[in-house]
Design a protein that fits this description.
156 residues; alpha+beta; Alpha-Beta Plaits; five-stranded mixed β-sheet; binds flavin mononucleotide
């Protein structure tokens, strides 16, 4: 049987915030993004350490390209760098309209450097999405590999 599901794309990028966003601003950004993403079938993860964002977005290819274009033009951040862009077979964040993690200062630059150092490893031979691999790397750094009990997706 041919696979008739729409093609899925993931994009992983980092960006900088010249002026750190306050928690109310972050909450408003998340509320708005989650509403939009739920309607558009976009899932992913947003990490923020007051200086840098790292975001993974996944969904139908056209939708993700449109959304990324919008995000790129958002004046709330600058210096966007695509760390990975590629087709995926399945979503890594299927239940999370936009999971959010505030992270300790210094972790995102470390993670970003690690991703830059081993971009090929992110392909995983087509078996594991970059999103899933980055998430695993992230959880290893943050929680020693243990996903916390609480719903990461709802944390602000
Ligand atoms: C770091 C960052 C991540 C964002 N992520 C999303 C997202 O996942 N989904 C989304 O709809 N908007 C996201 N935005 C907001 C968009 O740039 C834009 O403001 C929003 O999509 C406009 O929504 P509207 O068309 O409903 O006005 C993000 C903005 C920033 C700064």
């Amino acid at each position: 049987m041919p696979d008739t599901r729409p093609a899925l794309l993931e994009i992983v990028y980092s960006s900088e915030t010249p002026v750190p966003m306050g928690s109310e601003e972050v909450r408003a950004l998340l509320d708005h993004s989650r509403r939009n993403n739920a309607q558009a079938g976009v899932t992913g993860l947003l990490c923020y350490d007051r200086h840098q964002f790292l975001q993974i977005i996944e969904g139908e290819t056209d939708v993700i390209l449109d959304l990324f274009h919008t995000i790129q033009n958002d004046p709330r951040h600058t210096d966007l760098r695509i760390l990975h862009e590629g087709d995926i077979k399945d979503r890594a964040f299927s239940d999370w309209k936009m999971a959010y993690e505030p992270v300790p200062s210094g972790l995102l630059p470390t993670l970003t450097r690690a991703i830059h150092r081993q971009p090929l490893a992110l392909d995983g031979g087509g078996k594991t999405s970059a999103g899933r691999r980055i998430f695993t790397l992230f959880m290893d750094e943050m929680y020693g590999g243990q996903v916390p009990e609480r719903e990461t997706a709802d944390a602000v």
